[in-house]
Amino acid sequence: MSVTPEDIEKVALLARLSISESELPEVTERFSKVLDLVDELNTINTDGVVPMSNPHDMTQRLRADTVTSHTAREALMASAPAQASGYFLVPKVID
């Protein structure tokens, strides 16, 4: 795909990138190569290929949803720097 330095300047402006005049030819060439690779990938016949979300043929192992022992609230609250009536006290962040 043919990319011009003006195209690169437009993309750089939209992406808020700073590309110097000396870097422009190299960036244009590299960007062109990436787009050529994408064009090449688009020519591959993918008929009959099932889309996949993960390359590993696995299913997620889930544990049983059962009630377990309760945590000791007092032990957890003991590590809090500030508490009141069983609640953590935190600094106010919104006026």
Q: How would you describe this protein?
A:
This protein is mainly α and 95 residues long. It has a domain at 5-42. The protein has three helices and two strands; from the N terminus they run αααββ. It has a two-stranded antiparallel ribbon. Strand 1 (83-84) and strand 2 (87-88) form a beta hairpin. Helix 1 (5-14) crosses helix 2 (24-42). It is flat, with a radius of gyration of 28 Å. The mean pLDDT is 88.
Strand portion: under 5%
3D shape: flat
On the 0-100 scale, what is the average pLDDT? 88
Which sequence of strands runs across the widest sheet?
Answer: 1-2
Q: Helical content, roughly?
A: 25-40%
Low-confidence stretches: none
The major pleated sheet works out as: 2 strands, antiparallel
Which structural class is indicated by helix and strand composition?
mainly alpha
How many beta strands in the DSSP annotation?
Answer: 2
Give the SSE order as H and E letters. HHHEE
| Alpha-carbon Rg, integer | 28 Å
* SS summary, helix count: 3
Question: How far apart are the first and last residues' alpha carbons, in Å?
Answer: 54 Å
